[in-house]
Amino acid sequence: MKLDFYKYEGTGNDFIMFDDRQNSINLNNLNIRLICDRRFGIGADGVILLREKAGYDFEMVYFNSDGQLSTMCGNGGRCITSFALKLGIIKSQAKFLAVDGMHESEFVKTNPDIVKLKMKDVELVQAVEANWFLDTGSPHLVVKVQHLADIDVKKSGRDFRYSERFKEKGVNVNFVECIGDDISVRTYERGVEDETLSCETGVTAAALVARAKGWIGDNSGVSKIITPGGELKVHAEKLSGGFSNIWLDGAATFVFSGEINI
Hints:
Diaminopimelate Epimerase, Chain A, domain 1, alpha+beta, 17-stranded mixed beta sheet
């Protein structure tokens, strides 16, 4: 089976996109792992299928590089919006369905390379020993550290991800350092089972915890996040029980396209 593919990246988090509006692409676990393999395949953190869905501009079906269906991927949501524009499905904004429900996205008028994605409301930030757990479409643990550059993200992330509390369902682990009002984040992603250059649901989790716990100022409602793959911005309205109207801004870039024989 020969398939046309399109590779996109959002602040270094990269994906292989397939146009599956005919609902004819059936990829198994081995297929996805091969596609994502950086030596024997195309190479990516995940695979995304764009499908038709009544009442929406499209549906996003996301698989991690381990071949498993995954929870919401924010960088993937911004990249599939850019892909939908390339396919002529949308113009300047989109309403699409993902595994955690409906999302809105739009291109920034002053910089069309930047896509804004609306995330689901977050109602609870839960203490887990000295760290913080919340669900921003995917489950995330936020760990505040000093000297972020010195952290062994893969080793420390795996320790949390496979701990007694989280080993059954897994968790993404975000190591966060705050200097002034700047937030730096490095993330271990379950399913990839390694550090990725950026994780949008993780960046969102880090920004919300940093504001909720007073690690940064809470004046503008906008947080700048620095990841190894680039900068992002999180906009959110703080409520008594959580956050709403959460938007995340960042680049979504087409890398190359081609054909793969599965």
